TrEMBL record, chains A, B:
Cofactor or coenzyme needed: heme b
UniProt source species: Leucobacter weissii
Protein name as catalogued: Dyp-type peroxidase
Domain of life: Bacteria
GO cellular component: cytosol
Pfam families: Dyp_perox_C, Dyp_perox_N
Chain ranges of the Dyp-type peroxidase N-terminal domain: 77-219
Dyp-type peroxidase C-terminal domain segment(s): 231-409
Keywords for the protein's UniProt record, in alphabetical order: Heme, Iron, Metal-binding, Oxidoreductase, Peroxidase, Signal
Amino acid sequence: MPTTESVPPEPGSAPDRGLGRRALLTGGAAGLGLGAALGLGGALLGGRALQSGGGSETDGGEAGFGGEELGCHGAHQAGIVTAPGAHIRFLAYRLLEDTDADALARMFNILTGDIEALTAGEGPLADPEPELAARPARLSITVGVGAGLVERVSSARRPEWLGPLPAFTRDRLGNGYDDGDLLLMVQADDLLPVAHAARMLERDLVSFAEPLWSQQGFRQARGAEASGTTMRNLMGQVDGTENPSPEDDDLASLIWLDGSAAGEGWLAGGSALVLRRIRMELDTWDQVDRPGREQTIGRRLSDGSPLSAPAASADERTPSDFEATNEYGLPLIPSASHIRRAHSEDPGERIFRRAVNYEQDGESGLLFACYQRDPLSQFVPIQGRLDELDLLNEWITHTGSAVFAILPGFREGETLGASLFAR
Amino acid sequence: MPTTESVPPEPGSAPDRGLGRRALLTGGAAGLGLGAALGLGGALLGGRALQSGGGSETDGGEAGFGGEELGCHGAHQAGIVTAPGAHIRFLAYRLLEDTDADALARMFNILTGDIEALTAGEGPLADPEPELAARPARLSITVGVGAGLVERVSSARRPEWLGPLPAFTRDRLGNGYDDGDLLLMVQADDLLPVAHAARMLERDLVSFAEPLWSQQGFRQARGAEASGTTMRNLMGQVDGTENPSPEDDDLASLIWLDGSAAGEGWLAGGSALVLRRIRMELDTWDQVDRPGREQTIGRRLSDGSPLSAPAASADERTPSDFEATNEYGLPLIPSASHIRRAHSEDPGERIFRRAVNYEQDGESGLLFACYQRDPLSQFVPIQGRLDELDLLNEWITHTGSAVFAILPGFREGETLGASLFAR
């Protein structure tokens, strides 16, 4: 696999990714020279050496899960079908005007090093606070690209689906959470490594791109969930029951691109992400009685079981029966309910959802992320039906929308995104 | 202990705090009548009954720590010396103009019920989404009052220290994070119960007070810490080493009010909280080399050990020796370093710190909360020294400041804050 060429060699590189390299660099940085002003000598770093490492789900060896590493290498990027972190930050960037293909190749080279270091519990090159990276708590950093980035390399390589979605009538976009050239998803079970990684990535992107928007989402804390339950959203609903499982045989054909479409060979192993910001009107939602809210969704609030099955014998895994009727012949799951409208008989018209809750400036909602091969044939028809009719629409509004091509995975020695530049 | 009288009795009250009461109330709420419009019958709540409970550190019985309850009753409120939650939300309110002493008594009665229910994993009265309360993850709700609230009951009961702190020369306040009449601190290891509790409390306060400001802080996730280490702040420092421990014999005399001061009998068992919002200039801080940053603090970044002890044999628990000098006679801990300037020889001039990190709109910093008997004789002299001279001042700015009287604890059957109204 071709890699980029224009990156200067790292001082004290590969064999010594750990403290030594960092000590060299941070000790040598000119800084504000306070140490020198105080008449201080050499850089006594002290303390334990920070663990290097990789691979899947390794543990740094200290008590608590903070030392666990998820590993960043593989056919697919981490952070998509791997266990969801309790916290995720979506960071979108706009490329600077003079960031051309050569600069992008340099940028991906730097990002690759940052991701390899941070997910392994090390500070990236010249990290001034490597201690904040030392306990990654299953940190993953997943990278996607927007249409604008692909076109700086090759218009022919832009997939048809990569760009703004067709307009939906109920969308109220334009609030600063749309589109973007580059997306970083920083995810972990602990906010501290998320905060630190986001900062280091932003620092290293500064000569290539500028922050466009960021969105912070959460789900239940690691270890707080009852076993085997699906996340609840801020409306109180069990959210995401009807979702393909990472163990399902057909998940791969739903979400991973195989590169067979013209010009899309470079995306084999990648995916297509749709991210929607969905505001919830909780104040009016809370005024609806429980039966009304359950009819709106099609599921019981208590346990997420479908209304088509008796409460006593059903749970959230019970399949929905949209044909089941009550004694008056009315469907037990209303035909305008959310799950009925979202449902498709076409097994190819499915998506893999990874939604999280958000709260910001007194607003609550859902950051709805979903993965697929082709948003135009998977997300769009589903959302089209919901946009047309969904009882839930009275209390939700889509206020942000973005589509990104999630880059294929990379192996040790490879560079993330390299296939975009291959001839 | 006197309690307030003007609160209407709760329907289906004490013996049945659980699902029955909620079912009655939520099923009976008029709402938007969607259920009725859909021709739907009674409220079939289904699912498991939500656990009632109290006491310290009980577990709801399901896997994961989410079911753990901290208990809200006792001589002191929970959330001060109890184990810190991974997330804390500080919610300040301004009283409405017509909220008089009678209204305040009603308000505290309602707050008491809310706190008892939410911390026990139940929704409070008429909670539309009790499922979001069901896994409190050690939720605590701690209540403080500002000068404005006390004066609506009795000016004679306002402690001298309850009000804005004396001005410090470096303070840059006035950004909407100062003062307040009422403070709620909502704390848990999981953001979901925090979000839900905050929403329910705001709903129940709506006829008494309006939101003034809110601040959200975090520390390492529960279970993510290496054992026995102190929190790191976003500057990478081990933050809070030199802090009295909840196990210390003299902690009580430092933080818990004994009610002996004139007019302050009602506060016996309470405390005085100072909350400072401290912005960090991470970009310029990161330009300082490590020795410079360590000299600024007086501790090593690697492990928080004081610079007065050799790195090899010291850790963060090693006592600081401010007299120790190097071969040139210069103090090993610089005389202008943060820990040197913060240190007092007077053992009474100490505070109990509970700082958390914050990130908001691209800004990073520390929400510095500390407890004491008297801010004027404990926090103020410490901060006065730091304000005058502290190497760290180049990278931090205090941008918010508030003082609250933390109410005494309450026992089952008692009402939080009742002593304020006692004759």
